[in-house]
Design brief:
This protein has ten helices and ten strands. With 264 residues, it is α/β, with parallel strands linked by helices. The chain has two domains: 198 residues, Alpha-Beta Complex (2-enoyl-CoA Hydratase, Chain A, domain 1); 48 residues.
C-alpha cells in the first residue's frame, strides 16, 4: 500500500483516506495504485459492513494533479482516454459495485475528478465549509469519472448543464438542497455523523443492503415491469434467508435484530 492512501479497519467498518494533504489529495498515478490495492483488499474481505472514503487535511480531493499531465515541449500530450480507461473508470465502477454501503465523507473541497469520486459513493456527507466543483470546462475538458452520468440524474438536466458549462462551485448546503448529496453538516459534526452512520450499517442485514444497492442501480435502465420482476427475485431470495427470519422475530419480540455475518 502506498503512503498516498491509508486504509484502516475498525471492526466491520473500513476507512480509506486520500493522503496527499499538501496537494489537496489530488489524483496521481500513485494515489490510483493505492486505491486499487485498498479496494482489492476490501473486496476479498467478507466482513466489511461499510466503507468510508475521506481526505486528509483540509480537502477531500481537488481532482487530477495536473503536474502529471505536463509533457516536455515536442512530446505528445498524455492520452486522457487511456488514463481514464486504466485508472478512473475502473475505480468508479468498483466503488459503485462494492457490496457494502460506500459513504463519501467530504471534509473540504471536492473538485473535478474529486467531485466525481464523491458521487461514486452511495451516500455523501459533507461539512458546511465544503464545496463541489465540476470545473472541467475551465481547462478545456468535459466532466468525467461518471459525473456526466450522475449529475443529470441527481440534480436534473438544467442544473447539470449549468454545472458542466460554467464550472461554478456549489456549497455543501446548496448541494444538499439540490439532492446532489445526502447531508450537509456543521464542520465539527462531520466525523461523528460518519461514525454514527457506519455503526448503523454495521448492525444491518448485509444481504439486504447489497440487494438494495443492486436494485436501485438497475432501476436506471429498467422499465417498470422489469423492475417489478427484479424486486420479486430479490425479495424471494431475501425472504428465504436467516436475516429476514431474525428481523421478523425481533420485531415481534420488540428487540434489536441480531443479523448474521454470512450471506442469507
Amino acid at each position: 500500500m502506498t503512503a498516498a492512501v491509508l486504509l484502516e479497519r475498525h471492526g466491520s467498518v473500513a476507512k480509506i483516506t486520500l493522503n496527499r494533504p499538501d496537494k489537496l489529495n489530488a489524483f496521481t498515478t500513485e494515489l490510483h495504485a493505492g486505491l486499487r490495492d485498498a479496494l482489492t483488499e476490501l473486496e476479498c474481505a467478507a466482513d466489511v459492513a461499510c466503507l468510508l472514503i475521506t481526505g486528509a487535511g483540509r480537502a477531500f480531493c481537488a481532482g487530477q494533479d495536473l503536474n502529471e499531465r505536463v509533457r516536455p515541449q515536442g512530446q505528445p500530450p498524455v492520452d486522457l482516454g487511456e488514463t481514464l480507461a486504466r485508472d478512473m473508470n475502473p475505480l468508479m465502477s468498483r466503488l459503485r459495485a462494492f457490496p457494502a454501503p460506500v459513504v463519501a465523507v467530504v471534509n473540504g473541497v471536492a473538485a473535478g475528478a474529486g467531485a466525481s469520486l464523491a458521487l461514486a459513493a452511495d451516500m455523501v456527507l459533507a461539512c458546511r465549509s465544503a464545496k463541489f466543483s465540476f470545473g472541467f470546462c475551465r481547462i478545456g475538458l468535459i466532466p468525467d469519472g461518471g459525473a456526466s452520468w450522475a449529475l443529470p440524474r441527481l440534480v436534473g438536466p438544467a442544473r447539470a448543464i449549468g454545472l458542466a458549462l460554467t464550472g461554478e462551485a456549489v456549497s455543501a448546503q446548496q448541494a444538499a438542497d439540490w439532492g446532489l448529496i445526502w447531508k450537509c453538516l456543521e464542520d465539527e459534526e462531520l466525523a461523528a455523523e460518519a461514525t454514527r452512520l457506519a455503526s448503523f450499517f454495521a448492525t444491518q442485514s448485509r444481504p439486504a443492503l447489497a440487494a438494495a444497492k443492486q436494485l436501485l442501480a438497475a432501476s436506471w435502465n429498467n422499465g417498470a415491469q422489469a423492475q417489478f420482476e427484479l424486486e420479486r427475485t430479490f425479495q424471494q431470495r431475501l425472504g428465504a434467508g436467516a436475516d429476514y427470519a431474525e428481523g421478523v422475530v425481533a420485531f415481534i419480540e420488540k428487540r434489536t435484530p441480531l443479523y448474521g455475518k454470512a450471506t442469507s
